[in-house]
Amino acid sequence: MHLLLRASIITLALLVTCAALAAWYAPYLYFECEYRWHGPEPAVLPKPAVPVVGRWDDDYYVVEAIDATTIAIGEPRYYQGNYSYLIIGSERAVLFDAGTGTRDIVPLVHSLTKLPITVIPSHLHFDHVGALGRFDRTALLDVPSLRARIRDSRLTLQRYEFLGFVEGLAAPTFRVDEWWADGMNIDLGNRHVRVLSTPGHTPTSVSLYDEARQQLFVGDFLYPGHLYGFLPGSSRSAYLATTRQLLGQIGPGTRIYAAHMADPPAPVQAPTLEPADLKALEATLVAIDRGGVDPIGAGSLETVGGFPRVFPVRGAVKFATGFGWNNR
Hints:
alpha/beta, 6-stranded mixed beta sheet, 25% helix
């Protein structure tokens, strides 16, 4: 009888320990389970049956002119609806985000400008780094965590930094030619963009701000959908700090250009938000920390044990986060 009781206590302790570890490491387990349970998504989706702003290229990309020298390049047939942005000056151009790699974005970009092109990813997840190392120059945000890993001017992305295993992708290695520090002004020739370190979605996320044109390019920090604040490396406190930083830096008429388009029935077009969306995000993040807002469920996200929790922000924008003890 004593042996049976002892075995039961040990079994219970092991179960509690496993549950605690699973909850603590939920951001990592979520993606490991997602890949094994669901497998990779289809490489190319059918053409969307909604209106399209811009012109088709290669029957895959959509090219949309924001203005004469700012071009949005969409991938609406990719399941995440990614957008990259070509920012053109008189002497050089910047490609903000490098495409998903599903199709070759390089020939398209070269058809849009003959200027030297520097590509910089908003962050290092697999759907933003497809063409890194394949333009004239590749830049990264200048942070010690990335600099320390450079070998012979090359960087190899790490498993939970890249997350490409969810699509069966191997982590890439690419050459880094330029390091852009937070606050640096990049002169493109008669046009400047300011580099902004914007952690939250990932620790090394970066945004670009064209103050003269009131254009802010934010990658995955903000877009019309579920904001992934539950990933390995995500942080709600960093999200809040960055949100407040951006609100203090941008003008009230700023157009915020994001990396993922809205889901149908919204038309296919460059996903554009405004400072009011940042203000709403700030309010939601504060309310989450204070326990003043209830999650609305998982929405379109698949959940594992109630993870992640999803909170309303504004319109199509939702914030998905971990438990109180991870993604702080």
